[in-house]
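The following record pairs a protein chain with its ligand, flavin mononucleotide.
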Amino acid sequence: MTKAIVAVVYHSGYGHTKRQAEAVHYGASQVAGVSAEIYAVDGADAPWAELEKADAIIFGAPTYMGGPSAQFKAFQDATSHTVFAAGGKWKDKLAAGFTNSASRSGDKLATLQQFFIFAAQHGMHWVNLGLPPGNNSSKGSEADLNRLGFFIGAAAQSNADQSAELAPSESDLKTAEHLGARVANTALQFVRGRE
Ligand SMILES: Cc1cc2nc3c(=O)[nH]c(=O)nc-3n(C[C@H](O)[C@H](O)[C@H](O)COP(=O)(O)O)c2cc1C
């Protein structure tokens, strides 16, 4: 049976984005034939060998000051040496992204766009969220999948005064699961196609 490896690599300062990352990982792990892995990173100390083996890498970080957290950006910057200059080790892998922040927008789009550019620099193929926007009509609600209305990746919102046990919302976690499953299914298509 065809096997594909999907790696989730993320940073979380206070645990909210960790919960989102775990939901992405869970979604990927539910797809038959996929081995799903999850790694927390903080700067250049990262599982480079494991990431090189993955067919898809899903990037995640909280949005801090309108971009990925500095800890995750330091991980990204380290790939200049460990991945790019080392021979384009991530070329033709799949990529996707997710982010979480306190405000409903909070400039999360800037973080996801930054991940997209980062993936393109490595020659990776970007997988978008693939869900219609939720909660954008009189019949919508906060329980809708993709309630924040993103297309490029998965977004989550965590109230600034709530701990990671309470936020992000169930709908945001389900949206994250959807992204993980979508990337996993797409990774299987790519692996089968290459075979
Ligand atoms: C340094 C810093 C900068 C932040 N900047 C933003 C921001 O630009 N937009 C926003 O909506 N929330 C911002 N927040 C709130 C966090 O995104 C929010 O608390 C998030 O849930 C933290 O995720 P974490 O628990 O995974 O670290 C910021 C928080 C910190 C600590």
